[in-house]
Amino acid sequence: MKWNKNTLLLFLLVLLCEIGTSCTSHDDELLQSSGIGSFSTLGTVVNTARLTVHSDSYGPLLPMNTDIFIKNNANALGQRVLLEVLFLDSQQKSDSLEMKEVEVISLYKVLTKDANIIQSGTAETAVNDTFGTAPIPITSTTVSQEHLNIQYEIKGYNENISHRISLLVSDNAQLDGNGLLPVELRHNPETDVQINSYWGVVSFNLSSIPQYKNPEFKGFRILYKKYDGSAAYTTVTF
After folding, report:
1. Is the pLDDT of residue 8 over 60?
2. 148, 203 in Cβ contact below 8 A?
3. Which of 54, 82, 109 delimits the end of a domain?
């Protein structure tokens, strides 16, 4: 999956901002002037015996400094990661199936999870109590080989309180005329208060979405809530 320039800048900004702190426009200015020659990519850990990552953009990567995965508890099979890497052989930067040796400069452990299938007749209050109704603006989306990837913003305060990020799919949801499946991104801050802004990336397993197997499936139409409380939609296709 190829990322446009703005998306790469946003994802790299996530890497450069420490978890638990908010990012400012000044950070973005510094980012755009960076010239260290590194590349940002989402990927999946596909081998743990000799840690290997399959990059959405560059194919199979062989990190030389695997300790960074252990340090971030991101070395489990199937774990999604957002990496900033340096190719040790500059000629290897491509999406070919050839294994490429890289040095990982930064690693962001991506929330990796299944979608939640909502059964018909489930009370709205029960859904809201579990999955929340807090704002969660979407800033970027892609569909890769096995995942729906969403970059989002949320507000919080206490970094020790885990927020719940969920993708809701109705069990009777149907593809629209364009082959898009209607889904909803939800945010439950639990007991945290919403003060500071945070970035995040989540990858939902496509295998957990039954409608994905429909040969007419082309992508998603995602409902989410903006900071002003209004509803908004974004679409993403293969």
Report:
1. no
2. yes
3. 109
What whole-number percentage of the chain has pLDDT above 90?
A: 79
The parent domain of residue 171 ranges over 112-237
d(CA 153, CA 87): 30
DSSP tag of 91: G
Q: Are 224 and 205 in contact (CB under 8 A)?
A: no
Mean pLDDT (whole number) for 186-214: 96
Give the helix ranges, DSSP H, for 33-118: 67-71
Which DSSP helix (H) or strand (E) runs through 25? Answer: helix 25-32
At which of 109, 141, 163 does a domain end?
109
* 214 and 177, same domain (yes or no): yes
Tell me the C-alpha to C-alpha distance, in Å, between residue 121 and each of 124, 126, 127, 162, 166: 9, 11, 11, 29, 19
Please, which pLDDT band fits residue 3 given cuts at 50, 70 and 90?
Answer: very low
pLDDT band for position 91 (50/70/90)?
low
DSSP conformation letters of 103-135: EEEEEEE-EEEEPEEEPTT--HHHHHHHH----
Q: Is 175 exposed, middle or buried, given 0-12, 13-18 or 19+ CB atoms closer than 10 A?
A: middle
Count how many domains the chain has: 2
- 232 and 162 in a common domain: yes
pLDDT tens across 143-166, in order? Answer: 999 999 999 999 999 989 999 999
CATH number for position 134: 2.60.40.2370
Cβ-Cβ contacts under 8 Å for 185 (sequence gap 6 or more): 136, 138, 150, 152, 165, 166, 167, 168, 222, 223, 224
